[in-house]
Amino acid sequence: MAYLLAIALTLLAPAVAQASETVSYNDKLKEALPGFEMPAAWLRSHPPFRVVGNVYGVGGFDLATYLITSSEGHILINTGIEGSIDDISANIDALGYDIADVKILLSMQSHFDHTADLARIKEETGAKMYATAPDVRVLEDGGFSDPHFGGLETFRPIKVDRVVRDGEVIELGDIKLTVHYHPGHTEGSSSYGMKVQENGKTYNVLIANMGTINPGKKLLVEPTYPGVSEDFATTYRTQKAMPVDIWVAAHKSQYGFYYKYDRSKPYSPETFADPEGFVEAVTKLEAMYRVQLQQEAKEREAAVSN
Ligand SMILES: [Zn+2]
Predict the structure, then answer these.
(1) What distance in angstroms lies between residue 113's CA and the mean position of ligand 1's atoms?
(2) DSSP-derived secondary structure for 142-163
(3) 15 pLDDT more than 70
């Protein structure tokens, strides 16, 4: 019996090792998230563009990746889905920079459509992964413990090298990037802010994680995670109170990229200047949040009276 088991194990071992090396997370998503269809916009590439100053967009058609450059190396925020490393790298090249000079990796939210290739970029560049405390667990287990999309890995796990606090300033060369906890969308969702000077003007720039509520998420009745409703409320309140001149977000659709940006026009720091638009976008999300709270309260009452 032991002999047969040994044979079985030797036969199995190479197959298992091979499988784990060639695991495709894009394929695994079908199993992890039944009914999920990859939006076509997530597979499309997009040329790089300059947001303002030393902040560049190097991501895809909808999934946003940001590069902040300095003479001491760069900060890269988010990836797209698995495989997006190639387009991100090509976009960085096209700007005249090198992905090998990325020193710090950040994510705005630990969901696979923004984190899938962080581990590969870390391996290839030696960059350090920084993350907010509540997102560390999900990043390190590849989304397994995600309270909404978890149960199976949805992206390649990445080891976090340093935990960043709310309000902390990440410095690299002359980059000073402030971490803003904006939880709700994920437990550790965060935005990143910095000041950029252009033409004698100082702009408050926010790479904003918007408080969108994924379908099926529960706020009140059996909340997706304890405190999720309070987290969203805090995020809307603090975001509306922030001084924001220029903003971008994790999805191009969230900040009206295709209304604001015209590739045929020369670079202008005003392209993404939109202070009112930011407050409007947050206010809209907050209104949707309130509608969902009311619906859930009604459902709870109906359940009690039945
Ligand atoms: Zn998300």
Answers:
(1) 7
(2) TTTT-TTT-SS--S------EE
(3) no
Give φ, ψ of 66 to 5 degrees. -120, 140
Question: pLDDT for 108-137, tens place per residue?
Answer: 999 999 999 999 999 999 999 999 999 999
Return d(Cα 225, Cα 213) in angstroms, integer.
13
Ligand 1 centroid – CA 49 distance (Å): 23
* 272 Cα–ligand 1 center, Å: 22
The answer to whether position 153 is within a domain reads: yes
Q: How many Cα atoms sit within 13 Å of 153 on the Cβ side?
A: 17
Position 187, amino acid: E
In the reported structure, the alpha carbon of residue 228 is separated from the centroid of ligand 1 by a whole-number distance in angstroms of 14
- Rounded to 5 degrees, what angle do the CA atoms 56, 61, 65 make? 35
260 C-alpha vs ligand 1 centroid, how far in Å?
A: 23
Q: What percent of the chain has pLDDT above 70?
A: 93
Give me the number of domains the chain comprises.
1
- Give residue 166 CA to ligand 1 midpoint distance, Å: 20
Give the distance (Å) from ligand 1 centre to CA of residue 216: 13
> How far does the centroid of ligand 1 lie from the alpha carbon of residue 8, in Å?
42
CB-based burial label for 78 (10 Å; 0-12, 13-18, 19+):
buried
Q: How many whole angstroms separate alpha carbon 288 and alpha carbon 292?
A: 6
- Is 4 within a domain? no
Domain containing 288 — which CATH number?
3.60.15.10
Cα–ligand 1 centroid distance for 6 (angstroms): 44
Model confidence, pTM: 0.91
User: Is residue 216 domain-resident?
Assistant: yes
Residue holding tokens 């940001």?
66
241 Cβ contact partners less than 8 Å away, ≥ 6 residues apart: none
Domain of residue 297 covers: 37-305
Query: Is 21 among the domain residues?
Result: no
CA of 229 to the centre of ligand 1 (A): 16
